[in-house]
Amino acid sequence: MALDRWVAFVILCVTMAYGYAAFFTMDALLPPFMQRNPIWPSTFPKVLAVLTIITALIILLGLEKSEDTGKEPDIDYRRLGDYHLIPALTLLALMVGYALILRPGGFLFATFAFLVLGSFALGERKFHIMLPVSALASFIVWYLVDEVLGIFLRPWPFFI
């Protein structure tokens, strides 16, 4: 089986467990006044689980493939060294670092640092564009989540 189908199989297994939790365990803990709402906290996870299961099944069954059988697969797992693994793994490490620094460092600093370091890792070298865009994007996302949606995000580090 090709690498893309193995990845789709793993994603399908994880998503089925996620979907089970979204459909059967999240709604049991709702207070009675929320049970009559049209949209519950589990609505987005349910939609996400269904769409991901459908997409994984399409890839697993090979429905997205064209009829050209003479071509080699898009990703050859025997030649993984030929791909740009260092930027991809760096970006994954930055995502983990972002998750770890988000609470103590504050949203604005953590998001700004992730965007700058992530774009640098992916090859962007125009700092005069990268720094203001990262700062503006961090502030706009924080403003929309905190002020518009009313979900508190600590903007500054814990010591401020």
From TrEMBL:
Domain DUF1468 per the UniProt entry, residue ranges: 6-153
Entry keyword set: Membrane, Transmembrane, Transmembrane helix
A Pfam family recorded for this sequence: TctB
Full protein name: DUF1468 domain-containing protein
InterPro entries in alphabetical order: DUF1468
Annotated TM spans: 6-26, 47-63, 83-101, 106-123, 129-153
